[in-house]
Amino acid sequence: xxxxxxxSVENRQISSYEGIVFGEVITGINMLKDLGAGLRNVFxxxxxxxxxxxxxxxxxxxxxxxxxxxxxxxxxxxxxKMDYEVLGSDNGMLMVxxxxxxxxxx
Length: 106
Fold this sequence. Notes:
four-stranded mixed β-sheet, UPF0145_dom_sf, UPF0145 protein BAU18_000709, UPF0145_YbjQ-like
């Protein structure tokens, strides 16, 4: 499955548009990662725990979108966009969404 932010796939022609597909992941950030991030906020540096959680959520959202496109019979997803939000009363949830157009290639 080709997944790209561009509107076309190099050296391939889009033969049909199958529809818009989405991938969504909402994940909680655990207390230990929050504690580590809080210390990084005070003393500086990168939050490895948050970065790992973001990477995992992004990969899961793309995988979910890809599976939905495959279920539609698509060969690729073009025009992919990603979005990130913080949710919850204490901002303890991370939402990663992606969307694109499922297409068949000739």
